[in-house]
Amino acid sequence: xxxxxxxxxxxxxxxxxxxxxxxxxxxxxxxxxxxxxxxxxxxxxxxxxxxxxxxxxxxxxxxxxxxxxxxxxxxxxxxxxxxxxxxxxxxxxxxxxxxxxxxxxxxxxxxxxxxxxxxxxxxxxxxxxxxxxxxxxxxxxxxxxxxxxxxxxxxxxxxxxxxxxxxxxxxxxxxxxxxxxxxxxxxxxxxxxxxxxxxxxxxxxxxxxxxxxxxxxxxxxxxxxxxxxxxxxxxxxxxxxxxxxxxxxxxxxxxxxxxxxxxxxxxxxxxxxxxxxxxxxxxxxxxxxxxxxxxxxxxxxxxxxxxxxxxxxxxxxxxxxxxxxxxxxxxxxxxxxxxxxxxxxxxxxxxxxxxxxxxxxxxxxxxxxxxxxxxxxxxxxxxxxxxxxxxxxxxxxxxxxxxxxxxxxxxxxxxxxxxxxxxxxxxxxxxxxxxxxxxxxxxxxxxxxxxxxxxxxxxxxxxxxxxxxxxxxxxxxxxxxxxxxxxxxxxxxxxxxxxxxxxxxxxxxxxxxxxxxxxxxxxxxxxxxxxxxxxxxxxxxxxxxxxxxxxxxxxxxxxxxxxxxxxxxxxxxxxxxxxxxx
Length: 582
What we know:
The chain is globular, with a radius of gyration of 25 Å. The longest helix has 37 residues, at 421-457. The chain has helices at 15-35, 43-70, 75-94, 98-104, 107-114, 123-130, 139-152, 154-166, 181-188, 193-209, 211-231, 237-243, 249-261, 263-277, 301-311, 317-328, 364-385, 396-416, 421-457, 464-479, 506-523, 529-538, 545-552, 559-580; strands at 171-172, 177-178, 282-283, 332-333, 345-346, 356-357, 483-484. The protein is mainly α.
C-alpha cells in the first residue's frame, strides 16, 4: 500500500460487499413499504430500519465519492457514484412519510411512545422532529409549499448559470490574460498595482452589464424565503434559518455588534498595510495585495507531519495519538495527480476512518490545510467513537470550530518558534488576514443579509440600486475612512454565492471566534479547558450547538466572552505594527 494514498479497502474489500449493501437497502425499501401501511404499530421497526439504512447508504455514498475523487477519469466510479445517488434518492423517498407522520401524532400517541422503554435510544431523535410541529403546515399545504419551493430554488440556479456559464470577462492588457473568476483572486494579490486596478475595473465593469438581472434574482430569493418564514409562523426569515441549529437571533446580532466595536483596530491594520505597500491611499484593489514577502521555505510532507504533531502537543497524548493514527493507517490521500479532485476535504462515514483528501504541494499553506482537515477528522473520530449513529454527526455551526482551532494551534506554535522577524511578520500577517477574511468580511456579509431581508419583511421591493446602496454603505463602514471605497465595489454583492445559502456566512465568523477563545484557554492551561474541549469534540449531536460551545468554554451570548477573541486580534495588530516599523 502506498503510504501517501488513503486505503479505502478498509471500507469495502471488493464489489461483492458493495452489492450486498445495495441489495440490503433495496430489501429495506420493500419492507418499509409494507410497514408504513400500519405506521404506528410498526413504528419501532421503522425507526430501526431508518437508522440501519441511513448508516449503510452513508457508507456507500462516502466510498463511491472518494473512489471517484481518486481519479475522476475512471468511468466505473463515475457510474457507481451516480447509482448510489439514485439509490439514496429512492431510500429518502421511501422514508419521506416518517417525519410528517411523527408530526401528526396526537398527544396520546406521543405519550405511548414516551412511556415505552424500547424507544429510549430514539427519544432525542423524535423530540427533535417534534420541535418543528408548531412550524409545520397541513399535509396539503406542505405539498404545495414543497412545489413552490422547487420553483424558488431557481434563484440560486439562475445566479449560478449567469455567473459561471453566461458571463464572459475581457482580456487584461497588462498581462495579456483573460480575466476569470478563478484567477481574479491572484490578480488582486499581485504586486503589480496597475494589474490589480485593471482586473478590478474589468471585473465590476462586467457585472455592471448584468446588475439588473442579479438584482432581480437576489430579490426573488429573499422574497421567497420571507414568504415561507411567514407561512410557517416564524417572526422572520433569519429566525427560521437559525431555528435549525436552535440558535437564538441574539447570537447573530451580538456578532455584528461586537465586530462594530473593533472596527477601529481593523482600520489600523489597513493603515499599516498602506505603509508597507508604500502608497498614498488604499483603494479597494489594494486591500488584498501581498504586503509581506512569501514564506517560501519548502516543507516536505514528512516534515509537515512533524510540525503539526508538535503544534498539537498542548492537546495531550490521546489527541496526538489519533493524529499519528491518521498518518500510520492511511487516512490521507496526500499528493495531487492527474484526474484527482482538486482542493481538500475530510470525509469518510460512521463505519470508516475519517479520511482526508489533500493536494499537498510542499509549502506552508499546505501545512495549514493538513492541520485544518485533521481538525475535522479528529472531530469526526471522537464523535463517531462516542455516539450511536443517529447522534454522531455534528452540525455545520460547530464544524469549523475544530478545524480552525487546529490552525490556530499551528499559528501559535510557528510564531513562538519563528527564527527571525521576517518569518514572524509573515505569520502574524497570516493570522490577521484570517481575522479580516473570516470574521470581519463574513460579518459584513451577514449584516447585508440581515438588512436586506428586514427591508423585504417590511414590505419593500428591492432593486439592484437598493442592494448597491446598502452594500456600498456597509463597505465604507467596514473598511473605514482611510480606505477609498471605490464606487465599483457597490456591485460586489452580485458576486457572492453565499447570499443564496440564506444566513450561512455568519457561521464562519462565529466558528473562528469560538476557536480563538477555546484555543487560547487550552494554550494558557486554564483549568479544565482541555477536558472541556475534548468533551465538545466527543458530543456529536447530543446537545445543540450553543450548549456544546458553552460547555466547552465559549458562551456565544456573552459579549465579555467574545471580547477575549478580539483582544487577540488587537494584540496582533500592535505586534504587527511594532515589527514592521523597525
